[in-house]
Structure formats: C-alpha cells, structure tokens
Write a structure and sequence with these properties.
By secondary structure, the chain is an alpha/beta fold. The strands form four sheets. It has a seven-stranded mixed β-sheet, with helices on both faces. The chain has a three-stranded antiparallel β-sheet with strand order 7-6-13, with no helix packed on it. It is built from 13 helices and 15 strands. About 50% of the residues are buried. The structure holds pyridoxal-5'-phosphate. The site of pyridoxal-5'-phosphate (PLP) has 14 residues, from helix 3 and helix 4.
C-alpha cells in the first residue's frame, strides 16, 4: 500500500552533488560552507547576523543563553508547540510560563502574555505555529513596555512574512530548524538570526564550548597558541557537509514555499465547506509559509485511525507542552490553558510537503471527506 507521510524532504541531484563536493574538500567542519550558508540565510531573511548550529533545539538553547536567561527568570511561551520551545528555558535554569493561544490562529495570545507577566519575566518566546506569524506588533509593544527580550521560534516559518517583513529580521533573536520535515533541510541543523552584534558574539561562543581566540575578547594573551574559555558553551557545531546541503536547498526555498501555498489552497478549496471540519485561517497582513496544514475535527481518534490505516500519515501538532509527564512532575500540575486544551482535542495535521503530488493530495482529500462525512452522519 502507498504511504503518504505528513512531511518529507525534497532532495535532488544538485543537492547531492553539493554534498559530494564538500566531502572531497579540505573542510568537513568549521570550514567555508558554514559561513556561506549563514550569509545566505541572513540575506534571505534580512538579518545582519546568522549563526548555523547543530539543530533547531540547540538554536533555541543558544538564543536563551544569549538572552541571558538563568535561574529565577521566567520566559512566557505557548503550549501549542514542540517541547523544545519550552525545554530550552529549562536548560538555562529558567522557568517556562505558558500563555494561552487564540482560538482562530492557534498562536500565542498577546492579552494572555500580559496577564502572565511578573517581576521575574525576562523574555517572551513566541512560536509561529504552522508558519503563520504571531501578532508581533502587539508582542513587541508589550516587550518594550516591560523591558523583555523577544525570541521567535521560527522552526515553522522560514519564508514567512509579517506585514511585508521577513520572519528572522523582526525580534532580538529568531531560531530556525532544518530537520527534514521543515522548509529546507540539512538532515539535522538550525540557525539563529539577530541584528545585535553583542548577541551574535555570545551565540558564536556558545556554539563552541565558550572558547575564543578573538583578541578583542581575551582577558590576557600568553602567546600565539593561546585561547580562553569565557563561558560554559557546548559543542553545538554543524558540519560543512550539512551546510553544503543547506546552501543548495536555500536556492529552492521560494519554490518550496510556493508549492506548499498551492497545496494549501487546494486543501482549503476542497475542505472549507465540509461540516465537521474547521480549516485554518491566514491572519490579515501575514503570509504563512505553511509548514503544516492543520484542521480540527470532532471525532479525532476515529478519523486519525482510519486515515492511518489508509496509508495517510496524519499527525497531531501538538500535545500542550505542560501536559507531558516531565512537566506534570515538575510543578505544572495546575497549569491549564483552556483554548489550547480545546483546540488540541480536535487537531489533526494532513500531509503537506513540496513533493506531495496533486494526485496524492486528491486521494487524501477524498479519504478525509469520506471519513468525516461518515463520522458526522
Ligand atoms: C522542529 C522544531 C523544533 C526543533 O528543531 P530540531 O531541529 O528538531 O531540534 C523546535 N520548535 C519547533 C516549533 C519545531 O517545529
């Protein structure tokens, strides 16, 4: 039986050749492909600096480190996300605080951010769920009022824009992921973008053990061999092999996003008037880059099981983060975000990736319709 996954990379001969070239070169890591990939992403999103890193989770960890998150600090984030968006705060000794999402976009609600601010709040970490940018104007004005940093987890939103400006150029720090289901892939990989030189320097240190040879940073200089560890960093480096793939993939970003948009238009057209299905909306002034196509249904379990049995790789994004046993066992037993809970009950992600053919999508649509109509009837 044919199996259609919910997401999949698109890798062509050109991508493969780019990787092979690096394998024949002098640098497998810490070489020129990393810098070139960083410049390419920085240019694409309109940021001054970009730092390529091991994966999207490392990018979030680095962003929280650069933002100065530490023990006692609170960071407000959304529950409708992958656990990494909150875990990164815990890595730094901070406390994630969950603000509820809006019922229409499923993105973090600025009003609830306001309610969750305390004198310990240090940053707001937003997630552009499915690729749809959050209400950044409101979020930036809250941040300004309360002197908070804004970190964007843009793992879903490479290629999205907010009021005509690319995601990646809008807040203190923005992180991306290049996992194979995301817009472009490096296998594993991530990136942080910023316009702030001081933050950029912290990110560079953090990526490689906190060690530097930069003479402007050294506290003393004992000779040409000399280096210093200034911070407790990690080995979060990415390889040139991965970055060569990333450079080649970036050349196709626009095509990938266009194809995702075209597929979403077909889904919307086919599903918008079906009783029992809530289709997603695109908010005013935003262009989503459509990482996910998420609908809501009433009998999620039956529909999920039926579609999986038909070879359709549906998924659920996401279980509210605070409901995971780790969070329940670490002080989040009484946390409830009512909108997130309600939305989670019906969420189901349908296959969406650039290589999905019209024929495959027609099959998905036909089966979804049949299944929902049966449940409704
Ligand atoms: C994919 C993803 C991440 C983590 O990225 P990795 O590269 O898998 O570490 C973080 N946040 C969100 C919202 C994601 O979708």
């Amino acid at each position: 039986m044919m199996y259609i996954p919910y997401g999949r990379q698109t890798v062509d001969e050109e991508d493969i050749q780019a990787v092979v070239e690096v394998l024949r070169s002098d640098y497998l890591t810490t070489g020129p492909a990393i810098v070139e990939f960083e410049q390419k992403v920085a240019e694409q999103v309109g940021a001054k600096y970009a730092v390529a890193i091991a994966n999207g989770t490392a990018a979030l960890h680095a962003a929280c480190f650069a933002a100065g998150i530490q023990q006692g600090d609170e960071v407000i984030t959304t529950p409708i996300t992958f656990a990494a968006s909150a875990n990164c705060v815990l890595y730094c000794g901070g406390t994630p605080v969950f603000a509820d999402v809006k019922k229409d976009t499923y993105n973090i609600d600025p009003e609830d951010i306001r309610r969750k601010i305390t004198d310990k709040t240090k940053a707001i970490l937003v997630v552009h769920f499915t690729g749809q940018p959050c209400e950044l104007d409101e979020i930036h004005s809250i941040a300004k009022e309360h002197h908070l940093m804004v970190i964007e987890d843009a793992a879903h939103a490479l290629g999205a824009d907010y009021k005509g400006k690319m995601v990646g150029s809008l807040s203190d720090l923005t992180t991306f992921s290049f996992h194979p289901v995301k817009h472009i892939t490096t296998g594993e990989g991530g990136m942080i973008t910023t316009d702030d030189e001081a933050l950029y320097k912290k990110l560079i240190l953090f990526r490689s053990h906190g060690i530097t040879r930069d003479e402007t940073l050294l506290q003393s200089n004992e000779g040409p061999w000399y280096y210093e560890q200034l911070e407790l960093g990690y080995n979060y480096r990415i390889t040139d092999i991965q970055c060569a793939l990333g450079i080649s993939q970036m050349n196709k970003l626009e095509r990938f996003v266009d194809r995702r948009r075209a597929l979403v238009m077909r889904y919307q057209e086919a599903l918008k008037d079906i009783a029992g299905i809530v289709t997603p909306i695109e908010a005013e002034g935003c262009h989503s880059s459509w990482h996910l196509y998420v609908i809501r249904v009433e009998k999620r379990r039956e529909i999920f099981e039926t579609l999986r049995a038909l070879g359709i790789g549906v998924n659920v994004h996401y279980i509210p983060v605070y409901r995971h046993p780790y969070y329940q066992n670490h002080g989040y037993q009484s946390v409830v975000c009512p909108n997130a809970e309600q939305i989670y009950e019906g969420l189901i992600s349908l296959p969406l990736f650039p290589g999905l053919t019209d024929e495959q999508q027609d099959y998905v649509i036909e089966q979804v319709k049949k299944c929902v109509e049966r449940q409704e009837g």
